[in-house]
Specification:
This protein is of the alpha+beta class and 64 residues long. Helices cover 34% and strands 25% of the residues. The protein is built from three helices and four strands.
Length: 64
Amino acid sequence: MKVYGKNVFNELDLKKIRKVYLSKNFNDKDIINVIKKNGLKYVNVDQKILDGMFKHNQGIVVEI
């Protein structure tokens, strides 16, 4: 299942995250630090790819 948005990411149990898709323009340093600190798998993609998944995604889509 995929979910999206900054607030949703912040509420998730990090152990349940399989992969994070970030827009190449994503600049929320707090979220990026959490991803890296916890060794979460992530990939930077064009915003168009995220828009194809969810229209209003805030630059982040999470696969759980």
